[in-house]
Structure formats: structure tokens, C-alpha cells
Amino acid sequence: MQVPAPFDYVRATSVEHALELLDSHGEEARIIAGGHSLLPMMKLRLARPDWIIDINDVAELDHVTEDGDRLRIGALTRHATLLSSELIGRLFPIVHDAERVIADPVVRNRGTIGGSLGQADPAEDLTTVCDVLGAEVVIANRSGTRVVDMAEFHRGPYETACAQHELVTEIRLPIRAGQASAYEKVERRVGDWAVAAAGASLVLADDGTIADAAIGLTAVGLEGLAVEAAAVLIGQLPGEEIFADAGRLAAEASSPVEDGRGPVDYKRHLADELTRRVLRTAATRAGALADV
Ligand SMILES: Cc1cc2nc3c(=O)[nH]c(=O)nc-3n(C[C@H](O)[C@H](O)[C@H](O)COP(=O)(O)OP(=O)(O)OC[C@H]3O[C@@H](n4cnc5c(N)ncnc54)[C@H](O)[C@@H]3O)c2cc1C
């Protein structure tokens, strides 16, 4: 099925207007941002909204703002904007690592961070990035806004805390001194979804030990962070031995399924290997390991 079912279309001009439209058009209304996930779903008849509410004119949702100890990213910010932002690359290199391997320029020019998190595809890269960075998600409804952390926002495959009548307006990333991060993905061909991917963030103390760590995996059946894998790093100096322990534990925490992208053993091997690599890269970026 390559043609969507009939639907009506309306453009929102502000957040308030989008929320009004969501309310007035009821259960069968859906927000469209980049459309790179929703439209394929509609063509496959996996989604059949009666109304599409287009938020592409809502300029207040498109911004990248450094605000004290956090970076605020509007939900309508495109992949391409994230990738070209010098500020994001400096504060959160993991975002650039991930964006370089998300789809292709056509998708990146249109697709948004709000749509990516809103779609909550199990192979979607920015959810892992936001998990690892301890992001908060701002959700608006007609009564006001609420802020949820990623553990609360991401409820599982294709399911989030954003209700049908609500809108994701902003993603907030905490800026932490001594933090470094990295993301690496294995894909079958350039621009494809992940066979597996890993992301890591390290915060180093003044004495060079790891004060905080977070590890996330993409497309291998881990919801949220690999908490036990990250725990073995705390209080240690960065190094191959503890990275190997963390990689093994991250692979054990994963729960991949066999599909066209590979068998379970291969994906688990990737979870292990990619975890070690992103920890190595993050530690190198933090200045704790020599760049080789
Ligand atoms: C060929 C192709 C390859 C791709 N490869 C990758 C890849 O390798 N890695 C990857 O991570 N992604 C990949 N994507 C997905 C891409 O990143 C999309 O841009 C993203 O999934 C959805 O963003 P969007 O803005 O297009 O969302 P849309 O399709 O517009 O919306 C997706 C969902 O989110 C909801 N939504 C959108 N914005 C909001 C909001 N502000 N508040 C509440 N709900 C909202 C919509 O109602 C819909 O349910 C690929 C897509 C394509 C077409």
C-alpha cells in the first residue's frame, strides 16, 4: 500500500495554535514535523490520521540556545542544523557523531529532533544520544508545560509520554564540566538504520578518575541505559581493562533479535565492541587517553 488514506491538513502558526488544533480535531489528529517517519507510516497504513497538523511554520520551536548550565534545543530543529552547529559539536560531540550517520542529507534537511524522539523507533539514534546525555524533554498541553527525563519520556518502542493532545516543545541537555561523549554505529550501507550502535558519556574528576558515566545502545533491545556497565567505570582511571568490562556488561544487558540485519550473536558482539570504542573515544576527547 503506497498511498495514504484520505486526510485533512492544517498549518499551525504557534505552539498555542497547534495545541488548540490538537484539542479541536480530537483523537485522530497527528502532528507532522519533517514527515520522514509519519508519511511512510501513513503510506503503509500503519497510521491513519484524519487530520495532520503541520508545525513547520512554528518558528519558536526551531532554535539552539545555550542557557546557563543547559543547552535548549527546539523540537523542530532539523538534523542538519544539529550537525552544522559548532556549539553542539563543542559541547556534545556525540550529537555530531550520530547525526553524521543518520540517513542522508535529504532526510537530515527535513527530519527533526522532536519527530525522532516522538517516533521512538527502536533503531532511532537520537533517543540513545539523549539517554546518555541525561536529556530532559519539555511537553506542552493547554494547561501548561511539564518536564520529564528520558526514562519517563521514552516508554518503549513507538511509545512516549507525550499524549495525543500534547506537543514536545524542547529538549534540554545539561552542560557539565569535564564531560566528553561519543557515538558509533554499524550499518549495512551508508544511510541505513543501525544494525547496532552505542553511545557513551564520561565526566572526569580533577584527579582524572571517572566521576560519572552513561552508556546506551541502539537497535539491540536495551531500553534506557546500561546501568551496570557504566557502574564499573565510576572512580576508576579510564583504560582498556575497565572498558572491556563495561563492553561485556553492556552486551549482556542487550537483548537483540535476529532479523535481516544479522543474528543475535553478531549484534551482541557489536554491542560489546562498540561500547569499548565509544568509551575510548570519549576518554580521548576528555584528554585522558592519547589520541592514536
Ligand atoms: C530513508 C530514511 C532513513 C532514515 N534513517 C535513520 C537513521 O539511520 N537513524 C535515525 O535515527 N533516523 C532515521 N530516519 C528517521 C529520520 O531521522 C526522521 O527524521 C525521524 O524519525 C522523524 O523526524 P520527523 O521530523 O521527520 O518526524 P515526523 O515524521 O514528522 O513525525 C514522527 C512522529 O513524531 C510525532 N511528532 C513530530 N514532532 C512532534 C512534536 N514536536 N511533538 C510531538 N510529537 C511530534 C509525529 O506526530 C509522528 O508521530 C530515517 C528516515 C528515512 C526516511
UniProtKB/TrEMBL annotation:
Residues 2-178 form the FAD-binding PCMH-type domain. The keyword Endoplasmic reticulum does not apply. It comes from the Bacteria. Keywords: FAD, Flavoprotein, Oxidoreductase. InterPro entries: CO_DH_flav_C, CO_DH_flav_C_dom_sf, Diverse_Substr_Oxidored, FAD-bd_PCMH, FAD-bd_PCMH-like_sf, FAD-bd_PCMH_sub1, FAD-bd_PCMH_sub2, Mopterin_DH_FAD-bd. This is Xanthine dehydrogenase family protein subunit M. It comes from Blastococcus brunescens.
